[in-house]
Design goal:
By secondary structure, the chain is α/β, with parallel strands linked by helices. Helix content is about 50%, strand content about 15%. Helix 6 runs parallel beside helix 8. The chain is globular, with a radius of gyration of 20 Å. It binds erythose-4-phosphate.
Length: about 220
Amino acid sequence: MKFFADTAEIDEINALNDAGLIDGVTTNPSLIKKSGRPFRDVISDICAALPGPVSAEVTALDADGMEAEGRSLAEIADNVTVKVPLTIDGLKACRRLSQDGIPVNVTLCFSANQALLAAKAGATFISPFIGRLDDIHLDGLQLIQEIRTIYDNYQFRTEILAASIRSANHIKDVALIGADVATAPPAVIMGLANHPLTDKGLDAFLKDWAATGQSVL
Ligand code: E4P
């Protein structure tokens, strides 16, 4: 399973990458706004920081505009993945870009039917937003399960990129279902390492070790 960092903050990305915890990055217009930096500079910096896929989102609403923006974004670096919304125009742009070998992440997916269309349009990634479904009392994990079943039924190669992840349990749950990728805020990825019994055990070991008066080196 791959982990992507859902952030536009280069320091957070470097910290995760240094720890060997991430395989790629996803951004969106809201994350770019939060960074306070020029979009292309952010994408260029992230792409230079790690070799994995870096999603950069188009903002045009028509297929021609999305295609033009996507081709331009893909020129920033070899590891750019163009992110398009799950609309009919987004699917058109996805097909055109994918046919030319530009990887596409189809985002804002909230139903299995939408995910089926994205796979048929040749998407490299489909991004179902599980947290936002949970927010309105629908079942985000059920959506991941449905997409997994449909893609497996027909051997679609589109990767399921579970997005809008809010907790460590979300990551465990999508891993159990078989999502190909989870994209999550850096704090959630780092938080996977936490367990109170690890802290308690380490504290006890170090106290006992200090009592021996020895040193490892
Ligand atoms: C994914 O690509 C999106 O950027 C992201 O996961 C959205 O998460 P949110 O619903 O927490 O904003």
